[in-house]
Each structure stands twice: as structure tokens, then as C-alpha cells.
Amino acid sequence: MDIINNIDKIDLILKKASKIFVIGHINSDLDAISSCLGLLEYLKVKEKYIIFDDNILESGVSKIYNETKNTFKYIKSKEINNLVDDKSLIIFLDFNRKRLLKDENILNYFKYKIIIDHHEEAIDTIEADLKIIDVEASSASEMIATYLKEKKYNIPNNIATYLLSGIVLDTSSFSLKVKKITFDIASYLIQEGADNTEVQKLFKKNIKQYIKNQKIIMSAKNINNTLITLGKKGIKYRREDIGRVADLLLQFENISNSFVIAKLQDGSIGISCRSNDDNINMKEIMLTFGGGGNKNRAGANIKNETINNIYDRIKDIAKSL
């Protein structure tokens, strides 16, 4: 794994830093926040912060935030100008693209930058002193857990649980993008005290939301072994919920791909898509919508566009798959 080969380089940059800031992508999911907290927990520097700009949180992310907000220093992007100095380091986790920052101007404040991610680079990939981008890794949480294992760090139970939840999320419960090391690291996290019961609680469904999700599933249309469905008019969905619907749609017989299109809570239109077809690259499809992801799981947030137009584009794509 790339992170193992770069441990010395990571450690060298960490030693130079006076203050360290970690940041995950906007619209944080369990992998983003968990990988940030996993690394932040390990860091020895006196001043360390997690930059966290989201106001609307997925339920699992909200639970982790509430459990850790008094332990770790959460700050907003707009606060960093009062904190950084000329030896400050920023570490980008679970993303590498500028468009996934709340405020791109924060890049100008830092002398040192590291990227630790499992998504492919794009045209707007952030320039950094060290880029560890391992598209074979299941998740950023797997990468950070691997680093902590190599460092023989005793991971607190709650952090181990969070890291395991990040792996569970990005592998769709170990059904996508799983290699031997993924199971090895999951086993290691359990040995370190990760509680699978607590992981499942992070994925708990609200009954009202579950019913809404089932209504989306019932309206799915099959085009060329691809299920496509729309969120209900007048309802705003959480990103995690349309992602879960996309996962569920992929479990039906003779279905290789799924697309869910819905209005999100921030007013944008979200797309979540999944594939278990080795010949399909969902990340490449979502790049055409300004999004990203990886081969099997991807998505996009779109503004100034109608759901119907996006639906028509997705239907045309499905016909060609």
C-alpha cells in the first residue's frame, strides 16, 4: 500500500510542522471525518485542529461530531487566518480536489501540504508537498488505520470504531472494492477495540426517512440492467440516504448499475451512483457532472440545473452502458 511506502516522508513533514490542521471534503461522510480524527488522535504536536465547515450533517457524522467536539478542536475555514504560522501543515483526507473545499483560499495560508486519499486525481487536484493517492485502497479510513498499525499506535476504542465505520461505508459493508488488506485492517481495528455494534448504530435509519427511501426504490426504472430513480417532489434528502438507496438498488437480480437523483438539504441536486460491472467506471461518468468518486461508487452535487434534465442525461448514459 502506498501509505506504507511513504511513512518516512509523512513523518519528516510532520516533524517540520509547528501546527497541524486536518480537513475532509465538504458534505462530510463517515470516511472523511473518521480518517481526520484517526490521524488527529495520533499527532503529537501541541496545536492540532480539524477544519470542519459543514452545517447540515449526516446522522452518523453528527453522532461522531457530538461525541468528539469537546475532545478535538473543530474550527471553520474562516478561522484559520488567526491560527496559522509559517510552519503550519494542512493534511487533506479523503479528497484531493479544490472543488471539495468550502474555501479554496485556505490553500494560500499553508507552507506544507499532504494529501492522503483513495480517489483518482483530477484537473483541479490540489498541489501538495506529498500526495499519497492510492486508488486501490477501499477508503481513507483504511489508509489511516494502516498507518497507525505500522506506527504500532494504541488506538482508542472510539477512534477504532470510527475508522471501521469509514471502511464499512466505502465498501458498502464489504461488498465493493475489498481486498485482503481491507479485511486485515478491519480485523486489526476490532483487536484495537472497535465495536461493530457501535458501527451499526452510526448507520441507524430513521423510520420516517426509511419510508421515504422505500418510496424512491419503488419508482426505479430499469434501463439496460441499470436502475435509475428520482427523489420525490417537494422532499429534500440527506446525501447519506440517496447513497444508501443506490447501494440497495444494486442488490437486485440482474442489476449492474444504479443511479439516484434527488434534491438535497442544501438545495443542490445530488446524484449517487454505484456499479459492480468491471467494465463501467462511475467516477468517469460523474466527472461529466462535476463530481467524482471511484470506479464503483461516485456522486455529484449540481446547482443551477433541473432534476428532469439530469434524469434525461442519466437515461441516455444508461442506454449506452
Protein described:
The structure is a single chain. 39% of the residues lie in helices and 18% in strands. It has 321 residues and is an alpha/beta fold. It has 12 helices and 12 strands. The radius of gyration is 19 Å and the shape is globular. The protein starts with a helix and ends with a helix. Helix 3 packs parallel to helix 5 and helix 5 (140-150) packs across helix 6. The strands form 2 sheets. It has a 6-stranded parallel β-sheet with strand order 3-2-1-4-5-6.
List the helices and strands and how they pair.
Layout: H1 2-5, H2 7-16, E1 19-24, H3 30-42, E2 47-51, H4 59-68, E3 74-75, E4 89-93, E5 112-117, E6 130-133, H5 140-150, H6 157-170, H7 180-191, H8 196-202, H9 207-218, E7 221-223, E8 226-230, H10 239-249, E9 257-263, E10 269-275, H11 282-287, E11 292-293, E12 297-302, H12 307-320
Parallel strand pairs: 1-2, 1-4, 2-3, 4-5, 5-6, 8-9
Antiparallel strand pairs: 7-8, 9-10, 10-12, 11-12
Helix pairs in contact: 3-5, 3-6, 5-6, 5-7, 6-7, 6-8, 9-10
The gist of it:
The protein is α/β, with parallel strands linked by helices. 39% of the residues lie in helices and 18% in strands.
The percent of residues in helical segments reads 25-40%
List the secondary-structure elements in sequence, H or E: HHEHEHEEEEHHHHHEEHEEHEEH
Q: Can you tell me the residue ranges where pLDDT is under 50 for at least 5 consecutive residues?
A: none
Rg value? 19 Å
Class from helix and strand fractions: alpha/beta
Could you tell me the number of beta strands?
A: 12
Largest sheet: number of strands, sense, barrel closure: 6 strands, parallel
Beta-strand content bin: 15-25%
